[in-house]
Write a structure and sequence with these properties.
Strand content of chain B: under 5%
Distance between the termini of chain A: 61 Å
Strand content of chain A: 15-25%
Number of domains of chain B: 2
Structural class of chain A: alpha/beta
Helix content of chain A: 40-55%
CATH topology of the largest domain in chain A: D-Maltodextrin-Binding Protein, domain 2
CATH superfamily of the largest domain in chain A: Periplasmic binding protein-like II
Order of helices and strands of chain A: HHEHEHEHEEHHEHHEHEHEEHEHH
Oligomer: heterodimer
CATH class of the largest domain in chain A: Alpha Beta
Number of strands of chain A: 11
């Protein structure tokens, strides 16, 4: 009877067997790779137990992190770091649930999030800085028009409705603005970029702070939403008269037109990596490193800049993992910084690195 | 010549014959047109994915690990193996449960309260967004184990697969004529043998189609894997570790800022489609063998 069944379905059974064989080959392929890694380890100077670390969080950090971890594993073949960009909020949640070894976030953990963390005290280690560019689409107007903070906020509040408004023209002598309605674009998805921009708006305008506030999603007074940086960029390109905000890395890699902003010292600055680093260098950074650096002092400072942090527990439960993790994060703030600017991320200022080292030394494992 | 023959025929036929013949042509034409419109999107999707993806496919795309985002080269070997592994795990769990439940519903307990409750739950389960399945598995399995794993991913996919398999299999078993079952009883078959040797083989074609539908459905799932299988930039050394999967890799590449990543997303999409089509073809080949 069984023979009959087998005969009837021989191709199907053959196919299943093939799938099984493929899987077995694949799995043995994996363990083959694993063996290779281990034999390499013996030659490496940093010989140690093979450790795999898992991290989750900010999508903004992902391109930088995959590059950093790839380079790191070349020198430390016994350490494998798997990072998934699931979003800052989800990264905090995963760290709290202890399903990952470290997280990454564009906004510091809130007090209730810290209270929910199962593994105790969480350290915030700044790894890089991001800047947000204000982009626009006005026909026949040159690149890098100047937009003052109060003007920008009033545009988003819907108080300035047309590009030929005298308040815009006042900062841009010689530029002839068309009589074109202003349309604002923002992120429709929860985003660290939105958090930075609304943090800046709240910092420069008490009216914005009171009526709208800051956060990864806010109740926008108007305008259109787009998903992710590409969504906002598309909204800007499709409708003349639109203004919006995109990550500097995205703007730089896609040749997007952006505006100059006025920083705290009253200087006009274009978004740049140096401007973001300068915001960190000139800010007063507290010991816990959980600080917003929007509208920071400094002549070269770009005002819409913010830290991105790696978050990890102060008490590491697993000795091998804890040791490997601290070594990794130390490398990220030292040698790892060399990979930042090539990928359009801002470097940490030198004066912070020593302080971060001291902070990392407090981790117990 | 044909014309004159036609005319010769029409002369002998009722006067509305020509009208009816043109009506027939018109309706046939409309049917063909509708069919063409229906299959156009399929070919447009296939064509678009092939056109965009083929350029980035090379041997290394099948054999290498992903490079850091935005860099040229690298492959998705771990994601291909990961997707196959996840399909394998979910099939081992989902197909037996699905088929056995369907046998129970169709052969053993067609009309009871329990059977109707199972059918109702299955239909509800089929309509639940897949991300919710992911969250449930995260809360129940991932948090209990304490880390992400291929097993958790496989369980999530199995939960999505089961209702499809149950409903398709049950429909097919119900289509088997009752007289066949009676004939088997008349020959003295016990019930289990009747089910195994008469009903299942008779319905095999439909059952396998149902199973393949279930497998194809889960092969393309991203949402339930985000917080179960989690993804991995490297090879997973065991099924107890986070594992990569093609749909997650496509999502990652497609949402990244760099153009290199976008073309890799197209290539990975092409591979996923080929994988699903191959699974379907295998099932169809199996059926052709049975029918001849």
């Amino acid at each position: 009877m069984l023979a009959k069944l087998v005969k009837r379905n021989k191709i199907l059974i053959g196919a299943l067997a093939l799938l099984a064989v493929i899987t077995i080959i694949a799995v043995s392929g994996c363990s083959g790779t694993g063996t290779k890694t281990e034999s390499k380890t013996e030659n490496a100077t940093t010989a140690g137990k093979s450790v795999s670390l898992n991290g989750a969080g900010s999508t903004f950090d992902q391109p930088l992190f995959t590059k950093m971890f790839d380079e790191y594993s070349k020198d430390n073949p016994n350490v494998q770091v798997n990072y998934q960009g699931v979003g800052s909020g989800a990264g905090i949640k995963q760290l709290s649930d202890e399903t990952v070894d470290f997280g990454a976030t564009d906004a510091p953990m809130k007090s209730e999030q810290k209270a929910a963390a199962k593994g105790g005290e969480v350290l915030h280690i700044p790894i890089t800085l991001g800047a947000v560019a204000i982009s626009y689409n006005i026909p026949n107007v040159p690149k890098e028009i100047k937009i003052a903070p109060d003007v920008l906020v009033d545009i988003y509040l819907g108080k300035i409705k047309s590009w030929n408004d005298p308040r815009i023209a006042a900062d841009n002598p010689g530029v002839k603005f068309p009589d074109l309605a202003i349309n604002t674009a923002h992120r429709s998805d929860g985003s660290g970029t939105t958090a930075i921009v609304t943090d800046y708006f709240s910092n420069v305008s008490s009216e914005w702070a009171k009526s709208i506030g800051k956060g990864t999603t806010v109740n926008w007074p108007g305008g259109v939403g787009g998903k992710g940086n590409p969504g906002v960029a598309a909204a800007i390109q499709q409708t003349p008269g639109t203004i919006g905000y995109v990550e500097l890395a995205y703007a730089a890699q896609n040749n997007i037109t952006y505006a100059q902003l006025k920083n705290k010292e009253g200087k006009w600055v274009s978004p740049s990596l140096e401007g973001a680093s300068e915001a960190a260098a000139k800010s007063d950074i507290p010991d816990d490193m959980q600080v917003s650096v929007v509208n920071a002092p400094g002549e070269k400072t770009y005002p819409i800049s913010a830290f991105s942090w790696v978050i990890l527990y102060k008490d590491q439960k697993d000795k091998d993992k804890g040791e490997a993790l601290v070594k990794l994060v130390k490398w990220m703030v030292h040698d790892g910084q060399n990979y930042s600017e090539g990928l359009d991320y801002a470097k940490l200022p030198q004066n912070m690195v020593d302080r971060i080292d001291k902070m990392l030394d407090t981790i117990k494992y | 010549m044909i014309d004159s023959a036609d005319r010769a025929i029409t002369m002998d036929l009722p006067s509305n014959y020509v009208v009816r013949r043109y009506k027939n042509w018109l309706i046939s034409g409309l049917l063909i047109l509708a069919t063409l419109i229906a299959i156009t999107p399929l070919f447009m999707v296939l064509g678009y994915v092939v056109a965009n993806g083929i350029g980035s496919i090379s041997m290394s795309f099948f054999t290498e690990l992903p490079k850091p985002m935005g860099e040229v080269g690298g492959g998705v070997a771990n994601a291909i193996v990961g997707t196959l592994t996840l399909i394998f795990i979910s099939s081992i769990i989902g197909i037996p449960i699905g088929i056995l439940s369907a046998i129970y519903l169709s052969e053993y307990d067609r009309h009871s309260l329990l059977a109707n409750a199972v059918r109702f739950t299955t239909d509800v389960l089929m309509g639940i967004p897949s991300i919710i399945v992911g969250i449930v598995v995260y809360a129940s399995l991932v948090l209990a184990i304490g880390h992400f794993s291929a097993i958790a991913g496989g369980v999530a996919l199995a939960i999505i697969m089961v209702p499809t398999v149950i409903r398709a299999t049950e429909e097919m078993l119900n289509l088997v004529p009752y007289s066949l079952r009676e004939a088997a009883y008349a020959l003295g078959f016990p019930k289990w043998r009747m089910v195994l040797q008469i009903v299942l083989p008779a319905a095999a074609k439909g059952v396998i189609t149902g199973v393949m539908l279930g497998v194809a459905r889960v092969a393309g799932e991203t949402a339930p894997l985000l917080f179960t299988a989690f993804g991995n930039n490297y090879w997973s050394k065991s099924i107890n570790e986070p594992i990569a999967a093609l749909p997650m890799q496509i999502y990652l590449y497609a949402t990244s800022p760099s153009k290199e990543s976008h073309s890799q997303a197209w290539a990975a999409a092409l591979i996923l489609i080929i994988l699903v089509i191959t699974l379907n073809l295998i099932a169809r080949l199996a059926l052709r063998d049975k029918n001849t």
